[in-house]
Amino acid sequence: MFNRRGYHRSRVEDIVREARTSHGTFYLYFGNKEDLLAALASECAAELRAVAAGLPARLDTPDGEAATVAFVAAFLATYRAHAGVIRAWMEGGVTDRDTNRLGVRTFTHIATELERRLPGRRSPAARRARVAALMAMLERSAYALTSRDLVPGGDGDRVAATTLGRLVHRGFFAA
Amino acid sequence: MFNRRGYHRSRVEDIVREARTSHGTFYLYFGNKEDLLAALASECAAELRAVAAGLPARLDTPDGEAATVAFVAAFLATYRAHAGVIRAWMEGGVTDRDTNRLGVRTFTHIATELERRLPGRRSPAARRARVAALMAMLERSAYALTSRDLVPGGDGDRVAATTLGRLVHRGFFAA
Amino acid sequence: MFNRRGYHRSRVEDIVREARTSHGTFYLYFGNKEDLLAALASECAAELRAVAAGLPARLDTPDGEAATVAFVAAFLATYRAHAGVIRAWMEGGVTDRDTNRLGVRTFTHIATELERRLPGRRSPAARRARVAALMAMLERSAYALTSRDLVPGGDGDRVAATTLGRLVHRGFFAA
Amino acid sequence: MFNRRGYHRSRVEDIVREARTSHGTFYLYFGNKEDLLAALASECAAELRAVAAGLPARLDTPDGEAATVAFVAAFLATYRAHAGVIRAWMEGGVTDRDTNRLGVRTFTHIATELERRLPGRRSPAARRARVAALMAMLERSAYALTSRDLVPGGDGDRVAATTLGRLVHRGFFAA
DNA sequence: CATGAATGAGTGTTCATTCAT
DNA sequence: AATGAATGAACACTCATTCAT
């Protein structure tokens, strides 16, 4: 529901109808609507961390480009699978502090993992700036892909992942 | 109000109280709440186009870096000034077709202007991919800056603009 | 406006726009919206009384049928010209006592005039019942004619007046 | 509520207070205010048709007058019970096409049933005109009875039904 | 005498949440 | 454990009326 309609436009009634259950049951398992979001966010964070965990130790290797493309593809796929949740994170519609922090921490974790794999000798500040730019590209592209046709010329997640992955590899991780 | 609370959480009552006026007056000037958003979006689009118009003809020049930093700073400032509107654009909370298209077209316009200034000989597809990445960085950074503390280490728009501007110049426009 | 949209659906703004004047001017001449209705009602009552005044002394004469048809036609025309006002009377949307009474008294006046012309010897109660039925036919037909197509087969006021007038004459006034 | 205050002046809050329930419950059972009217209109139409169904095959019989009086009494009673709904029909305050048509068709149905029972040989046009007049009397009288004191001398529905019924029988159905 | 911008009480509708069964 | 009818606070929008100019 959140992926299709977004968090705010998804009514509890929509959710329970989709789940073939009732309002009462919903509130038996979740304290409130945002609590459901928190639960989904938790799953989403785990999957995103798994994506980061799938990164090889180094990306400045012969098959670094393929690995980068694979990583980007996995990131995009996970993002798409949880777009409703992640958007709710970003859009600030969430009141719960913990859930908000979870989002930030998850992306920070990925950023840290990527930063470790940045080759060359640069100052910590420069490294952080580069990885911030990298994360921005990843997030924004994923966001755009889960919106409607905001990327002219992009005709699917695969193409986007390949293009973006190569770009990222060349710009950030190539030896 | 939109910058502080976001479009959906801003009630008409909040808006008119802030503007020291009444509901009736509000609906005298705007057909409905979304109409206000459309009006603000129009202003915002004009300002964003002005930012693009402020770009020098070329950025691969001795003072190209300064110009890039200035452009990024102007972009971030404008984005911040209209964050509520732009977020409403992105978050899909807008029903009106025209307003939605305005957002896409405005960002496409900026992208086109930047693409023209990309130096070197690359295929159109490659140029488009690069500029898409560039726009992603710009947007995501601006978005992050107008959210809460999403950029660890960032301590202000100026620093962010300088850092990001230099990065952008080196990565995309340097000769 | 009242004829076209009805009293309640006519907004003061509609009225003043039609009259090419302003809200301020409206309230200069009328205390409120209902006050305008009262003024129009007064005119309408005068016209309806004039229609009654146009009745010949007797209707059970050789040219009684023509006179009855003429009366019915005049009644329908006046009703149509003031349909909005009369409907507001009937529909009970008027708060003002005087205006309400004016409506009742006007129709009572017409009823009395018609009762005088009823031929034959009947008890007062019977005469009143007959004239009540007559008035009902007149009013309901007029009401229907000013609504949309409630009278199947009727194709205009003239036809309606002729048909109804003859019917009325034969049923109530013929010698 | 509709009978007492009329459709438009009845607020949803009035309705739910009277029904000892809440706004939420109201919108659980009816899509909106007009939807309630439609539901009531449906019941009303059924009852009016039942009144027509209660007519004997012929009215030009020895006990035709009693049957006519009974029919008129039933019509008036049903009309009174649903005055608010029927008035909303007539007053054009209903937007829904189906509901509007329901009103017209219901009264047309009754008119057709009455037309069948008109004795004597007359042209179809004449028969239709007569039945239109008859319906006008019925409707207008019922309308008047459910308004305030519009019928001078009338002191109750029974008296009105008897008087009107006899009049109708003599004028339209007597052998 | 005329204006029209400003007002705010009033109204229909939505939806997260509760609780008796 | 599961249900779903019931709730009511919240919100966008309307329009008759006022009054400073």
Radius of gyration of chain A: 18 Å
Number of strands of chain A: 0
Question: Which structural class is indicated by helix and strand composition of chain A?
Answer: mainly alpha
Oligomer: homotetramer
Low-pLDDT residue spans of chain A: 149-154
Overall body shape of chain A: elongated
- Main beta sheet of chain A, described? none
CATH class of chain A, please? Answer: Mainly Alpha
| Secondary-structure arrangement, i.e. CATH architecture of chain A | Orthogonal Bundle
User: How much is the average pLDDT of chain A?
Assistant: 89
The biggest chain-chain interface is: C-D, 34 and 36 residues
Helix/strand order of chain A, N-terminal first: HHHHHHHHH
| Secondary structure: helix percent of chain A | over 70%
Number of helices of chain A: 9
- Strand percentage of chain A lies at under 5%
Note down, in words, how this protein is organized:
The structure is a homotetramer of 175-residue chains. With 175 residues, chain A is mainly alpha-helical. The first copy, chain A, has a single domain, classed as Tetracycline Repressor, domain 2 (Orthogonal Bundle), CATH 1.10.357.10. Chain A has 9 helices and no strands. Chain A has helices at residues 2-5, 12-18, 23-29, 33-53, 64-81, 83-90, 97-116, 124-146, 157-173. The longest helix of chain A is centred in the last third of the chain and has 23 residues, at 124-146. Chain C binds chain D through residues 6, 8, 87, 90-93, 100, 104, 108, 125, 128-130, 132-133, 135-137, 139-141, 143-144, 147, 150-154, 163-164, 167, 171, and chain D through 6, 8-9, 87, 90-93, 104, 108, 125, 128-130, 132-133, 135-137, 139-141, 143-144, 147-154, 163-164, 167, 171.
